[in-house]
Amino acid sequence: MSIRGLKKKQPKTFKVRIITVDAEMEFSCEMKWKGKDLFDLVCRALGLRETWFFGLQYTIKGMCTWLKMDKKVLDQEIPKEDPISFHFLAKFYPEKVEEELLQEITQHLFFLQVKKQILDEEIYCSPEATVLLASYAVQAKYGDYDPNFHGPGFLAHDELLPKRVLRQYQLTAEMWEEKITAWYAEHRGIARDEAEMNYLKIAQDLEMYGVNYFPIAQNKNHTDLLLGVDAKGIHIYSINNRFSPNKSFEWSSIRNISCSEKELTIKPLDKKAEVFKFFSSQLKVNKLIFQLCIGNHDLFMRRRKVDSIEIQQMKAQAREEKARKKMENQRLAREKQLREEAERAKEELERRLFQLEDEARQANEALLRSQEAAELLAEKAQIAEEEAKLLAQNAAEAEQERQRLEITALKSKEEKRLMEQKMREAELIAVKLVKESDRRAKEAEHLKQDLHDAREAERKAKQKLLDITRLNYPHMAKYPQYSPGDSRDANLDKGSTKLDLKDIDLKRLSFEIERERLDYLEKSRKFEDRLKELKSEIHALKLEEKQAGLHS
Predict the structure, then answer these.
(1) Pairwise CA distance, residues 498 & 508, whole Å
(2) Residue 70, marked binder
(3) Distance (Å, rounded) from C-alpha 56 to C-alpha 54?
(4) For residues 45, 48, 54 and 58, what is the CA-based torsion angle, rounded to 10 degrees?
(5) Residue 433 phi/psi, 5° resolution?
(6) CA torsion angle for 146, 151, 153, 158 (degrees, to 10)?
(7) pTM, whole model, 2 decimals?
(8) How many alpha carbons lie under 13 Å from residue 59 in its C-beta half-sphere?
(9) Is the pLDDT of residue 500 over 90?
(10) Tell me, what's the pLDDT at 505?
(11) For 324, what's the count of Cα atoms within 13 Å in the CB-facing half-sphere?
């Protein structure tokens, strides 16, 4: 046998692409695999144990269909593509998410799917609830709010609100972010799985949560109703209202559901109640409705039975895991708190260190300034000492100058006193001279008047004598040899002598007056010269007094 024959023949395979809400995976499947084989492979890859909630969905001819577990993959009506694409989605929903979703991966997958349905408006949510849900989604993604890292614009690339809500209110992206951040800041300390669970707990109370809608008709001609299948039962809605059902059939009140081609029959548990029949547009839709009804009914009955060993183990593991996570979260929270306290203490120490360094720097600068000031003060002290010596020397010189000035002042005072005395004497002399001048002027006037009177009397006397001579001796001129005439001539000579003597006295008096006047003028000139000298001396003394005052 050849070596090649010993080799095991490799089975033929085909490729599939599994698309979850947040990831994609590719697998190689054997040609003989059934739907359950592929589904189990995906669940193992995801680490998922709560497999009963999920299924593999594909789209064929515009209709969403679930892969059947009991049939071969390639025998089903699947898209002819390579690789074949399937969506791994939740097919059935729990009644109470907090009690039924045990694994964290299950919870995370439900969170992502429900969040997508809300954003795609497959589940209606009020604007207020969408903001709250968005805050829990942000908490699950980013953790605790930190204003140092989560500044304005950190949610710009996240899709958190349905477009319907954004269109309904005229708010900017910054305003929506501010509203979401206000709620987000209050979720501090909530772990990711807890934030996702809080999201699902709010979402499960929405009217359209977990409901699969199908158009139906109460007769074969009209499609005027909607049939909804969820975890609680079957609901009948009007075509324009998906919130409030017109009629509901809970799983506990349904006795039987039958499907035949396009007709689906619901038989209530109460045999007296009316049997509800409806028609769908296609047989595939009827089969899909019937498949969803069976799966939801099985889960409904399963919830109300005693848990299997596997479920009990999973619940115990979930409790242990929650307790462990709780302790871990508490430990992390405590460590985080201690770390924050340590960081605050570190920041405080750094701040204190910086403060001390700043104080040390300031003290060093102050010391340098003090040293510089001390050196400057020493220089100033030396300069002051030199200035003090110089001032002492100047003071001594000033004292000597003061003494000299005092002596000079005394001398000046004495000289001033003498000068004043001389001035007073000069003034007295001047007054006397003035008086004497006035007196002499008056005497000269009197003398001039007397001289004038004497000359006038002389003229009158001469005239009178001539007149008398002419009257007494008319012929004297004719007889010059007459002796009586000689006697008269003698008398006349005597009169002439008297007159000549009188003229001589007047001339002498006039000369004396002229001489005294000249003497007076000479004395006046000398006195004026003396007065000028005294004034110059007094002016010089005043200048010396002023200079002495300035020196002092």
Answers:
(1) 15
(2) yes
(3) 7
(4) -10
(5) -60, -40
(6) -10
(7) 0.61
(8) 5
(9) no
(10) 62
(11) 6
